[in-house]
Amino acid sequence: MITHDIRGKVLTVLGPTDPNDLGITITHEHLLIDLGVVFIDPPNENERRLAEEPVGLGNLGWIRVNWSSNRDNLVQADVSLAIREAARYADAGGGSLVDATSIGIGRNAEALAEVSRATGIHVVMGAGHYVGPAHPAGFSSRTADSITDEIVQDVQTGVGDTGIRSGIIGEIGCSWPWTENEKKSVVAAVAAQSATGAPLLIHPGRDQKAPIEIVSFIDREGGDLSRTVMSHVDIRIYEREILRELAATGVYIEYDTFGLESPFPPHAPDTYIPSDYQRIEQLVGLIEDGYLERVLLAHDNCTKHRLREFGGHGFDHIPLTVTSWMKRMGIGQVQIDKMLIENPKRLLTFA
Ligand SMILES: [Zn+2]
Predict the structure, then answer these.
(1) CATH code of 166's domain
(2) How far is the CA of 104 from the centre of ligand 1 (A)?
(3) What residue ranges in 51-185 does DSSP mark as E strands?
(4) Rounded CA gap, 83 and 314, in Å?
(5) Could you tell me the distance, in angstroms and rounded to a whole number, from the CA of residue 100 to the centre of ligand 1?
(6) 313 CA distance to ligand 1 centroid (A)?
(7) Rounded distance, CA 107 to CA 69, Å?
């Protein structure tokens, strides 16, 4: 039952919007977030002190490589800071962003609408639930149907009584190994996708095999893979063959941690975080393999240290800097426009 006011439109926090108005669109960001659920207690006394300090120049070097072990770094609740950071993105030519903050990590519909009104940036808000540790109390005893109803309501009528509607379902969190509650959350999200026609965005567990396992599951549940985004592919899949196998399923492949340059992910120290150079190399391979139409780009800014005012690259890193690096590595403007304008527009438009 797709409500007819969103057919042919993108559903932003300010209401149904003409897809041609989106412009440059980064598809996985967090203007406001509370990622306290991923906090890792440091192993020694000295670092435990650093964990409790506010983010500043004196600890920024440590935080850049231990970003999940500083409590202050994991919370961005300042709406005026979000407005200033989003305004820099607008200044760099940015038009729209997907705020993938889901339930459990501080989704705030009214604040997102405020940022959008203040900056002119179109903001598409997420729905559904993040990974298990972020699930609200009582989640284990909830039925998939009740979670589906909650998502459908967020898309069709809005979050609570705000009237502010979600235009995408996600990020739906999955861990590795994948838990039963997280599977239930995906089942519910797929049913809500069928009911509303909204795009679906998945956060996969930290293993190369996780994305394909989840995509097969969504397919069996009757989900629309052509309207499904696999997030964090740049920090999950390192082998071109596995990347090809995932791309061949027809999902969108999201390279969404541009700007995150730190060798080892704290939650999966036996894997690595590629540099922006390596991300672009992978993209060149995907384009060579014929998947340009399925690529999406973002920063996944989910901590303070990645914001401009805390010494980070901000939301403007891709339009301001990454696109010029792409050109240096052989990706042309027409291809960049596909990844930053055409593909997001197709994804976010309700049929
Ligand atoms: Zn995210």
Answers:
(1) 3.20.20.140
(2) 12
(3) 75-76, 94-99, 122-125, 169-173
(4) 12
(5) 6
(6) 16
(7) 22
Domain count, the chain: 1
Distance of CA 302 from the midpoint of ligand 1 (Å): 6
Q: Which long-range contacts (CB under 8 A, 24 or more apart) does 146-151 make?
A: 147/184, 147/185, 147/188, 147/189, 148/188, 148/189, 148/191, 148/192, 148/195, 151/127, 151/188, 151/189, 151/192, 151/196
Give the separation between CA 315 and CA 317, rounded to whole angstroms.
Answer: 6
Label residue 2 by pLDDT band (50, 70, 90). Answer: low
Q: Tell me if 20 is assigned to some domain.
A: yes
pLDDT tens across 97-112, in order?
999 999 999 999 999 9
- Residue 29 CA: distances (Å) to CA of 71, 124, 125: 19, 10, 10
Give a yes or no: residue 42 inside a domain.
no
Q: How far apart are the CA of 232 and the centre of ligand 1, in A? A: 8
CA of 122 to the centre of ligand 1 (A): 18
- The tokens describing 57, both together, are 């120049």
Q: pLDDT tens for residues 17-54?
A: 999 999 999 999 999 999 999 999 998 999 999 999 99
Q: What is the token pair recorded at 92?
A: 């760099």
Determine if residue 326 is left, alpha or beta; phi over 0 gives left, psi from -120 to 50 gives alpha, anything else beta: alpha
Whole-number Å distance, alpha carbon 260 to ligand 1 midpoint, is 13
Question: Which residues constitute the domain of residue 199?
Answer: 12-31+78-348
* Number of neighbours of residue 93 by Cβ within 10 angstroms: 14
pLDDT per position as a tens digit, 250-273: 999 999 999 999 888 888 888 899
